[in-house]
# Entry
Amino acid sequence: MMFRAWVPFVAASTLAWALVGCSGASEEAIDDLNAGYTASPSGTKDAAEPQLRIHRLFNGTRHFQTLDQYEGQARGFTLEADDVRVMQDGVRGASTALYRCLAGGLDHFLSPDSACEGARVEGLLGWMFPDAVPGTIPLYRCFNGRVGDHFSTTRPDLECTTATGFHREGLLGYLPGSAPFPFLDDQQHVYRLYNGGSHLLTLSSSEGLDTGYVYERAAFRTLRHKEIGADRQLFRCVQSAGLPFLSIDSDCEGHGPGRSLGWIFPSAQPETAAVTRCVHPAGTDHLATTNAAECVAAGYHLEGVLGFVPVE
# Structure
């Protein structure tokens, strides 16, 4: 167990309030939590999906981590990060279980202790590796004593700091890493089509084919979920004349709500490329591309960099 020679995470000054009113979880609560697992039609866990994503949400005061982000959204929480994954089953050396717990009726936290360190057991989230092995990354738990709030992260140096008000409590275990590029399994293609007058960028390679667009190529990739570092959303917008363009403004720069094409990085990261937006001199066509020289060669005016995306 990870908690050999381990002192309780809950500070002595907060232990009393943290355990008030705590009791064991009901079978219904555990069933509800475990319902977040991907299941096959037969009701068994899907062996093709060995990892489960833990969504981290925040309501402005407290954090909430869950296998089902809609569980948190229904409670008034907003998605904050999606970068933590656990193993679906205790196989291949992943022998440490990870539970979600509840202390004091408000503080949800993660723990490898099946008794939740004396707090209420909400359910099993998945499995971790007890020791570092190639391809794994450590998961730490952080705590804000002023608020009485926990969250767990693989990036404590960035998130458990004096500036954030959180301090690192300890190591929970080790999780499967993301290689060769972070969030590799969370990427999606944005396709590019052209009708002779305007470009269309879309998540569907067949969209627009029935209205005169011709498929050109896969333009670049975005992330399906908001991740730590990739927290800029990319939207497809439509001008008043019906011409499509991409923007990082959810209101499409005054043209109304846009359609999300996923998440991108606001600044350059290893193995990323800049997405540049350019416009035809007549204003009749916008193009977003990872090859700015393409805009110059076509006589388009460079408008600026929208963000950064994983390299192909």
Remarks:
- Residues 1-49 have pLDDT under 50 and may be disordered.
- Helices lie at 12-19, 27-34, 69-73, 156-159, 292-297.
